Amino acid sequence: MSGLVVIGAQWGDEGKGKITDFLASGAELVIRYQGGNNAGHTVEVGDKSYKLHLIPSGIINEDCLCIIGDGVVIDPKAFIDETEYLEREGLRVTPSKLAISDRSHIIMPYHKVLDGISEEKRGSQSIGTTKKGIGPCYMDKHERSGIRVCDLLKPEVFKEKLKASLEIKNSIIKNIYGGEELDFNEIYNTYMEYAKILVPFVRDTTVEVYKGIKSGKKVLFEGAQGTLLDVDYGTYPYVTSSHPISGGVCVGAGVGPTAIKSAVGVCKAYTTRVGEGPFPTELLDEMGEHIREKGFEYGTTTGRSRRCGWLDLIILQYAVRISSLTSLAITKLDTLAGIDTLKVCVGYELNGTMIDYFPASLEDLAQCKPVYKEFKGWDSSVAKAKSYNELPKNAKIYLKFIEEFTGCKISIVSVGPNREETILVDESL
């Protein structure tokens, strides 16, 4: 497993948390490399269900060190709340079990305010953010005016940087958006209390990762969101503010490209997305509602209902290429059980011409009509399968076509939400 990355191969919400948890049972380090608490991973083990947003899914493995890398933006309050939640659920969350990069950027109250106000001002052009301050925090990072974890641990440095930032942010909030200014003392005192809790977890995590890889430990890199939410390669501007693709691992975890030995792309047996933007295979009918209800397609972080559609292999083929995926993990195969005829998108019709690629222009994508190939469905026995051979014949035909079309083998098949309802096809993972 050494140097294995798990990414989302669609629009996020593919079940990365479950697959990461499944693979983390054999990992010694799990590193979250991008995003923030705008992500949501649900992991089910036995009769327990854990909802994670910021902390890596490997936290459930007692023998694994989890790392929040420098590519992640951290809301201290969200971090503290999540650690307390996990402790109540019986999981140990200590500095020996979890580390935070001292280079990670901190989400501040003004980031959340600006996120909410700017989204509201966009009106019909809204992006559909979670309003948790993720985008504005990344904006400050790249504008070189951000506040990092290492700054939070030095009161005088933090005070100076907060004053400078708050002066500018308050001016924007008040004079441009007509909002109320934020109070310096309230923010400073609150964040100093947060710092006391964060201090034991903070260190140079790039050293931990480097030593782990050099010593041959099993290292798992965990992404949030999905390929089509990547700020460069997704459906811009309806994207996140970081790089969920495998290329994001290097800068988000502080490693070189040779540290990545393999990459698993997680995708559902159908397609979903949350938020705005074109969605070629979206089903705005009873079938779409059936998939939504049977698959319980509601966001872990937002609770928003997900838009549902048939599996789009043009998207999946794109994800394989962009992230050099070495294998695929197919989730929620059980959700499609009982549907007589399934459809899979194998191309787009754009202005009367057949195309086999994913367009950059959203205007073009919105005009794309999916070209489908039909497959016979399977029954509920799929959920009882314990091995690939036990899957229904039609389900195996469906999976085989995915492999052939994308040129990427399937290494894992999930037939239910629980950890035990996972079929490992490739034993080498």
From TrEMBL:
Record keywords, A-Z: Cytoplasm, GTP-binding, Ligase, Magnesium, Metal-binding, Nucleotide-binding, Purine biosynthesis
An example Gene Ontology molecular-function term: magnesium ion binding
Record Pfam families: Adenylsucc_synt
Catalytic residues (UniProt): 13, 41, 141
E.C. number(s) listed in UniProt: 6.3.4.4
Cofactor binding note: Binds 1 Mg(2+) ion per subunit.
Record-listed GTP binding positions: 12-18, 40-42, 306, 332-334, 414-416
Keyword Ligase listed: yes
Family assignment from sequence similarity: Belongs to the adenylosuccinate synthetase family.
Protein name according to UniProt: Adenylosuccinate synthetase
Lineage: Bacteria, Bacillati, Bacillota, Clostridia, Eubacteriales
